[in-house]
Amino acid sequence: MSLAPILVVTTGGTFDKQYFDALSEYKIGETVIDKLLAIARVAHPFRVVELMRKDSLDLTDTDRALIRATIDAAPETRVVITHGTDTMTHTAAALADVTGKTIVLTGALAPARFAESDAPFNLGMAFACCQSAPAGVWITMSGSVFDALKVRKDREAGKFVEI
Amino acid sequence: MSLAPILVVTTGGTFDKQYFDALSEYKIGETVIDKLLAIARVAHPFRVVELMRKDSLDLTDTDRALIRATIDAAPETRVVITHGTDTMTHTAAALADVTGKTIVLTGALAPARFAESDAPFNLGMAFACCQSAPAGVWITMSGSVFDALKVRKDREAGKFVEI
Amino acid sequence: MSLAPILVVTTGGTFDKQYFDALSEYKIGETVIDKLLAIARVAHPFRVVELMRKDSLDLTDTDRALIRATIDAAPETRVVITHGTDTMTHTAAALADVTGKTIVLTGALAPARFAESDAPFNLGMAFACCQSAPAGVWITMSGSVFDALKVRKDREAGKFVEI
Amino acid sequence: MSLAPILVVTTGGTFDKQYFDALSEYKIGETVIDKLLAIARVAHPFRVVELMRKDSLDLTDTDRALIRATIDAAPETRVVITHGTDTMTHTAAALADVTGKTIVLTGALAPARFAESDAPFNLGMAFACCQSAPAGVWITMSGSVFDALKVRKDREAGKFVEI
Fold first, then answer.
1. Which chains touch C (3 or more CB pairs under 8 A)?
2. Which of A145, C16, D85, D103 could crosslink B131 through cysteines, CB 3.0-4.6 Å?
3. How many whole angstroms separate alpha carbon C38 and alpha carbon C43?
4. What distance in Å separates the CA atoms of residue D86 and residue D154, rounded to the nearest whole number?
């Protein structure tokens, strides 16, 4: 386990939602990833690429192609992607044939800006998984490391479950 | 990656420190692990054993033998130990010859009860590492997964570094 | 300044907003007032009446009449009302001719459930104002105690200002 | 209630306690007042003077004379003092004969850096009290506005009570 740099790609989702009072609206704001990693006292080298700020229900094939191309072009073999939870598995499928990289998708059911949020724990899970797991695509949600092609989101139950 | 249960052994450390105003003192309080795992929306099965509430500078060989015996006797093959950071590597060495289990030690440099703490992220790292990494003893601190026998704490720098 | 009980009337607003992932929506949830007052270690006697869970843009004259009637009927002479900020001054006007009571309206620009919110500070302001100020209607927002009939919300600037 | 500026004098206490892992110790750190007031979206004019960083059990008569002199020399007629809770009433007595100013002492039983702390609520109480109350010395703790000369701290019960 050497200190090979981690690429963090942010795409939006509940993870980065913020409340804009003047609009009486919740929107995805600037990513909080750098702040979370600073609070977590992360010394491991990493690089953040803020690709988009979208609810995952609004992601298009073009968006997924951009996520894919970004990962293909990157020198890093360890990748963490923060993503809305609703279509996380759909994006994972679009990355299934990437070779030589350990890719981990995660997100949050409560915004990171909330006092009580799963965001920091999930981000920690993803950071460890991309260092410990073999090459492939993974999802870290609900306390489990899942094979990203064998999991689905159970929306009503508020958790991810193995298929 | 199946949903094999995780054993969480808590021993104290900064992770669980609390402020007692009537004593004008900070002491290790009741473990906050269950609360953190609830906030993290963990659905993965786990069992918590609160073994002791000690600053790791106060841990004795008897304490370490108890930690070892608890892990040996447990049915779980995946173990997370929350521990003070000052002698975490010492306890890891005492577990080095356990076989057939993935054991991950973690802790925190700021108490979990703080608004800005590395505790939830580190706990998430440990939860993922015990599911993804091969059998052996690991430490997840400072954003990295370390071989527990090849790491030390750099106290002044406030981080763990590879030896 | 004796320990005369305080009546806390909650009507909703951003103060109590919560994120419901299964609905991909933010809605006003159960009031967090009791939890905030417990964290604030409030020993002063108080009584909470959760009247409604509305965005203040949705409050009707019937709602305002209910708020008014509740305050008129209450034995308490000290009243705190948590309320959405958009029409707080409108409700204040509906209470202008209540006699013998110190009524303080407050709210929040960020939900109390957020890690960084003005909610606890504003609630503290209101608790003190209803004990220190003379009878009448007041608004505590943006760090100031305002005569509730001489203030307006400057939405773009995100603050309340004297008229 | 005009926007007359508020002088905030910080003296230390639990309010500003911070954990320094490299020292395995809790010490009073740089005051968090400016950060709390920013989170509270305070637009009211104020000025912060960080006089000392002491546990109130360590305050001397010289310290109290300095606090007194600072207030006497200030142009502001509204003063908030953050202070350790153990000898808050002692310092209040040293300010009893100041004329023409509304002085409010407050503090916290849990550090402001904690996720669950009475600090922001208490600070809000003090900000409102110095605007609403008549000239004199007040203490805002435990949800009540107290005449500072008629209150004591009940350490075991963790609250302030009227004498």
1. A, D
2. A145
3. 9
4. 9
Q: What is the pLDDT of residue C26?
A: 81
Q: Quick check: is D1 in a domain? A: no
Rg, C-alpha atoms of chain D: 15
DSSP 8-state secondary structure symbol assigned to residue D78: E
DSSP assignment letter at D156: T
Burial of D49 (0-12, 13-18, 19+ CB in 10 A): middle
The residue among D20, D21, D117 with the most chain B CBs within 10 A of its CB, best to mutate, is D21
Exposure string of A148-163, with b = 16+ CB inside 10 Å and e = fewer, is beebebeeeebbbeee
Task: State both tokens at C133.
Answer: 């100020």
| Higher pLDDT pick, C9 / A24 | C9
Q: Show the low-confidence residues of chain B (pLDDT under 70).
A: 1-2
Q: Which regions in chain D score pLDDT beneath 70?
A: 1-2
Residue A142: pLDDT above 50? yes
Q: For D15-29, give one letter per residue: b (16+ CB within 10 A) or e.
A: bbbbbebeebebebe
Given a contact cutoff of 8 angstroms between Cβ atoms, the answer to whether D93 and D125 are in contact is: no
State the total domains in chain C: 1
Residue D26, pLDDT score: 81
For the stretch B108-118, pLDDT in tens is 999 999 999 99
Segment A14-30, tens digit of pLDDT: 999 998 877 777 889 89
- pLDDT tens digit sequence for A36-45: 999 999 999 9
Report the candidate in A11, A100, A108, A106 with the shortest Cα–Cα distance to residue A64: A11
d(CA D104, CA D131): 10
- CA pair distance A8, C145, nearest whole angstrom: 45
What is the pLDDT, as a whole number, of residue B149? Answer: 97
Whether C14 is catalytic: yes
Domain span at residue D26 reads 6-162
Most distant CA pair in chain A: distance in Å? Answer: 47
* Residue of A26, A57, A109 with shortest CB distance to C21: A109
Burial of C74 (0-12, 13-18, 19+ CB in 10 A): middle
What is the ipTM score, two decimals?
A: 0.97
Pairing between β-strand D144-147 and β-strand C6-12 as defined by DSSP bridges = unpaired
**Residue C55 corresponds to which tokens in the numbers above?**
């965005």
Pair B108, B120: CB distance under 8 Å:
no
What's the gap between Cα B82 and its chain centre?
A: 2
Residue of C16, C19, C142, C153 for testing the chain A interface, max A β-carbons within 10 Å: C19
Residue D45 lies in a domain: yes
Q: Which residue of C has its CA nearest to A15?
A: C21
CATH code, domain carrying C158: 3.40.50.1170
Judge whether A1 lies within some domain: no
Q: Is residue D53 part of a domain?
A: yes
Tokens describing residue B52: 């002791």
Which residues, including other chains, have CB under 8 Å from residue B154's CB and lie 6 or more apart?
A: B160, B161
